[in-house]
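Propose amino acids for all 133 sites.
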């Protein structure tokens, strides 16, 4: 099975406080409408952190600081294996403008379960709940 290496940003209102987390609804493809943490594929020669900064700039026209690695999710979809490095991140400039997603929300610890997460992303939710206020 083909492995796809990606990165995802768990963008928070403040890396210190972590009161709110930014999530997006996929705007295209097989999983259109499913909620996920924004990010994308790691290109050859990029570190995961570099890929994440590039992807968030492309998808949300926003510059971020990449924080700590939360976890690497390994998930088998029917046609490929996903290896997803998930990092906390914080906006340094820009307005999180949706270029590819169809919707976005700021979620709190109490509302993280209120959206229909994609299968790989949902595996991260319990860990994030432990780490945010």
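Proposal:
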């Amino acid at each position: 099975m083909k492995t796809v290496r990606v990165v995802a940003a768990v963008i928070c209102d403040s890396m210190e406080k972590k009161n709110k987390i930014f999530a997006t609804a996929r705007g295209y493809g097989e999983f259109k409408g499913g909620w996920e943490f924004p990010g994308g594929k790691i290109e050859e020669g990029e570190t995961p952190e570099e890929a994440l900064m590039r992807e968030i700039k492309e998808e949300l026209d926003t510059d971020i600081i990449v924080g700590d690695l939360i976890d690497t999710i390994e998930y088998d979809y029917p046609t490929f294996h996903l290896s997803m490095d998930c990092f906390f991140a914080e906006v340094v400039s820009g307005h999180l403008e949706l270029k590819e997603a169809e919707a976005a929300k700021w979620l709190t610890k109490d509302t993280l379960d209120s959206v229909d997460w994609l299968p790989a992303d949902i595996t991260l939710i319990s860990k994030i709940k432990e780490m945010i206020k």
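Residues 3-131 form a domain with the Nucleoside Triphosphate Pyrophosphohydrolase fold (CATH 3.90.79.10). Strands lie at 3-12, 21-25, 35-36, 39-41, 62-76, 81-94, 103-107.
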